[in-house]
Amino acid sequence: MIYLDSAATTLQKPAAVAAATAWAINHLASPGRGGHRPAMAAAEKAFACRETAARLFHVEDPERVVFTFNATHGLNIAIKTLARPGSRVVVSGYEHNAVTRPLHALEADLRVARSPLFDRGGALNAFRRELDRGVDLAVCTHVSNVFGFILPIEEIAALCREREVPLIIDASQSAGCIPLDFQALGAAFIAMPGHKGLYGPQGTGLLLCGTDPVPLLEGGTGSESRRQSMPDFLPDRLEAGTHNIAGIAGLLEGLRFVERRGVADIAAQETDLIRRMGEGLEAISGVEAFLAAGPEAQAGVLSFRVAGRDCEELGDVLGSRGIALRAGLHCAPLAHETAGTLETGTLRASVSAFSTGREADKFLQTVRELKNV
Question: Which of 19, 250, 263, 338 is 20 to 30 Å from 194 at the Cα level?
Answer without folding.
Answer: 338
